[in-house]
Amino acid sequence: MPKVTINDQVYEAAAGRTIIQVADEFGVEIPRYCYHPDIGIEASCRMCLVEVEKLPKLVPACATPTTEGMIVRTNTARVQQAVRYAMEFLLLHHPIDCPVCDQSGECWLQDYYMEHAGHSSRYPGTQKTRRVKAVDLGPLVKLDRERCILCTRCVRFTRNVTKTGEIGVFNRGHAAEIAIHGDKSFDNPYSGNVVDICPVGALTSVDFRFKVRSWFLKETDSVCGGCSTGCNLRVDHSARALGGGIPGVTATEGTIYRTVGRRNTAVNKSWLCDEGRLSFHTLERWPRLRSARTRGTSASLDQIHQRFESIRREHGQAAVAALGSATNTNEALFLMKKYFQGRVDFRLGNETQTYQKQQDDLLRRLDKHPNTQGALDLGLAGSLNGLQGIVEAAERKQVRAMWIAFHPQLVGEDAPEILESLERLVRALDYSIVSTTHEFPWAANATVVLPMAAWAEETGTYTNYSGRIQIANRAVAPAGESLPLHTMMSQLLGFSGTQVSPDPAAIFDWMARETAAYSRMTYASIGPLGLETIKETVQ
Amino acid sequence: MTPVRGGYAVDVPTVNVSERARSEQATVLSTFRAFGVTLRRLFTSLVKRDMPTISYPEQQRNYSERFRGTHILTVRDDGSLKCVACYMCATICPAECIYIEAGEHPNPEIEKFPRRFDIDMMRCIYCGFCVDACPEEAIVMSREHHQAAYNRDETLYSIEKLIQRPGINAKGPGYRPNRPFAEAKLFNPKEKDACAYPSVTDERHPAVLYESMIQKRQ
User: Are the beta carbons of B86 and A213 separated by less than 8 Å?
Assistant: First the structure.
C-alpha cells in the first residue's frame, strides 16, 4: 500500500495503480480524454499531465504508476499551462460546429475549455483543415473526422474489450485519422459503446442522432430489462414538454430518447450490448394499451377481487392462480404471491435452464428476462409446472380463474409457442384477467385486459443471474391509465383485508423480512450499484 | 389616535395638481373652450390636411428597424433554410413556443436541418431572445404584427409560413442584432492560398492526393 501525496493530501493507494486511478478513487479531479478505466492506457491526449516531485518533466497521470512516498501536484502553474497548451493544440483545427453537434452539452471539449483553457484561437477560422464529416462506420455509429481528437478510445475498445479490432488510426501526423480496416462495416454487437466513450462529438449514434439536444434530457438510473445479466444503464428521457402547447406534439408522459451504459464493475463495467441499448424501442413496436378492455364485466379491481373470491368459494382455493413472468419486478411478484397464496408461476419457456448461460463471452445471456433469479428466490417455480402445466390444468378445469401479467421481451421476439399457449390458456379459463403493456391479439378473448406499466415506467428491483439485486427506477409516466403491477396487487390485497403501501421500498422491506435471499437487506441499503444477495448455504 | 385633516389615519401626501389643471375650473366658459379645441382640430385636418389618424389597415405606419414583429426564417442563396436545427431558440424561449424536429441533411457540410419548425404565435411573447440566440442568423424578426385569424391552427406558423407569407417584405426586416457577425462570417476565398495547411477541399491535402493516387492506379 504505497502512500501517495496528491496536492498536500496523503492517500493510501492500492499497489500497482496509476496516479489517475488513485486520484479518481479519492475524488481529485484530473482532466483527461484518452484515459478510460475499462479499455487500457494510451497516454496520447496529454491532458492529465501532473507534476511529480524529483521528476524533471511533467508526467501523464494515466500512465505513471504510483510509488511509495510519491508527491504529486495537479494544480501548479506549470501543470495548468501544460493543460491549456494541450487544449489549444486539440482545438486548433476543431470546426466548432457545436450547433449541429450531438455531443454539445455533454462534450468534454466544451467542459475542459471552460474549465482549463478559455483561450481565443490564434488560427483564422477560414483556414482550418476540413475533413470528411458524417461517415457511416456501421449501422449504429457515425464518424465526424473534423471533431475527432484521436484519443483512440474507440480503437482500444474494439481491440481490448470486444477483441474485434475493426477501428484503427490510419496515416501519420497531420493526416492521421480514424477509419475502419478495409471496407468492413463496424457492426459488432457492442458497437454502440464507442459512442458512449467518445469524449467529443466524433462518434455519434445513428439511433439518437438529432432526436433531441442533450440539455433537454433528464437522467434516471435504471437496469436493463433485456436479459438476465442486468446491465446498469442510465435512461435519458424528456424532462419537460418541448414545444409548449403545440397540439399533438406536447409530451406529457415523457419519451425515452436513449439509454447509456452506467459503470458498475461488478456487472457490466461501462458497457451495454446494442440489443439492450436499443431495447427501449421494443415498447414502440406494438400499439400501447391505454385503457382497460372488458367483455361485459366490470374492470374495477374491487369487482375482480369479488369474482376471484366467489370462484374460490365455489371451486376451492386451487381454482384461482396467477402467471407472472420473469420481466416483472420482485415487488410485483412478491405481492402476487401474497394475494394468490403462493399459486403463482412465472416460467413461460425455459428461462430457468438458460438464465445463467452466456450468449457470448462479454455480457449477453440467453435468457431474455431480467428477473429469473428473483422469481426463483421467491419460490415461484412451484407445483404449477410453468406455462405448459397451467394450460393443461386449465383445460382440465382444475384452474378456472387466473391473473396473467405479461411483459413482452425487450430483446428479441417472444417465442411463438409461448404466445400460442397463452392464447390457449385464455380460451380455456372461465375468468381471465390479463394485465399487459400492449395490444396483443392473443389476449383478445380475455375477460378483462388491464393496461400495465412497462419497463422504465415503474420502480422496482430485479435480481440478475448472479443474484445481485438492483433497482430499476421509473423514468417516464405509464402510458394512459396503466398502473404498475405492484400497485394493482397492493390494491387487491387491500380488498382482501391486508393493507399494503404501494411504495416499492415498503414492499421490498416486507419482502426482505420474509425471503431468505434478501434477509437483513433494506431498500435503502441496495444503493445505485446493487447488492449481492445472500447465497443459500443449504446444499 | 386623532384623525388628521381629510379623514385619513395616516399622513397621505398631497397630490401635486399642475397649475394649469387648477386654473381650469368646470365652468360654462371651459365647456366652450373645449369646443374651441375641436373646431381648431377640424380646421387643421380639413383645410391643412394635417391628420394624426390613418385609415388602418389600408394605410400602415412604418416601424423602427428594431421592431420585434412576427418571425422570419432566412434562407441561403439556393433558397434552402439557413436554420441548422440547433435548438438554441427553443432552449432560450421563455414561452416555450418553438417546436423543432431535426433531420439529417444530404450535404454532410450542413449536416442538420429542421424537418419541422413551428412557432405558436399565440404563445410567443415577442421578446426576441430566439433572434439573439441564433448562431446562424437563421431567425430574424419582421416589422409586421398581424395575428388576426379565424381559428387557432392558423396561428401555428410552420416553415412555409415563416419563410414566405404575403406582405412579409413590404416593410423590411425588423430586429436582427446578429447581422454584422453574420456578414463577417462569410468565407473569404482570397485567404485560402495563404494557409500553410491545406483544407480537405483543396487538392494539396494529403487525403485528396492519396485518393487521386488510388484512382489513377485503378
Answer: yes
